[in-house]
Design goal:
Elements (H helix, E strand, L loop, with lengths): L2 H20 L5 H9 L20 E2 L5 E2 L2 H11 L6 E5 L5 H9 L2 E6 L2 H13 L5 E5 L12 E6 L8 H5 L1 E11 L6 E9 L2 E10 L12
Helix pairs in contact: 2-4
The chain binds S-adenosyl-L-homocysteine.
Amino acid sequence: MSEGAEEDLAERKMRFLFALRSKGVTDARTLHAMEGIDRGQFVRGIFADRAYEDMPLPIACGQTISQPSVVGLMTQAADVGSRDTVLEIGTGSGYQAAILSQLARRVYTVDRHRRLVREAEGVFTALRLTNIVAISGDGSHGLPDQAPFDRIIVTAAAEDPPGPLLAQLKIGGIMVLPVGQSDTVQSLIRVRRLETGFDYEELRPVRFVPLVEGVAND
Ligand code: SAH
């Protein structure tokens, strides 16, 4: 690579982190994790050169890799600790799971498209992210065998928080997810499980692809 090209990359990374901060991603651990994971590894084809822009981009199976600032805001809202076991529903490109893997002890990530799980696993292996387990299946049922979880992040929108996911959250645990109809603006919410029940907090408007029941055939 020429010196100029290297400078370009460094500059793009600086701009990327600056954009995150200006959109409210201020938590140092989250920023550090996002600095360490190259989004360019998770975007293929004609959109690859837009990987450092703060926008969602198309990935395989008609899905999208989320906007980096939204990934950052969800990650910081989840307040992941280094001993936590995290469940992510909606692997997609694997980008969010990769960032969570920098903060947590172990990350389970589930997608209904087998192809996306396979491709994300390829990137995890290439980046030597060994604490991620990617599973294909319907994530709206969670992962009863691995439950309960310290943190749950859902990256597809349901009308309400799925009951099985609430049930698989530890007491003291946090779940961050978008809720609302898929064709309108949804709300990003944070759910805390207390001894006595659940506490819900609305964070900001977002737009995600829908959480779809059942597994896909690709
Ligand atoms: N977190 C991803 C973006 C996710 S896009 C990233 O960082 O790139 C939303 C994903 O949710 C899609 O890949 C879609 O296939 C998946 N999804 C939708 N409904 C699902 C369900 N019931 N179970 C598991 N995955 C689901």
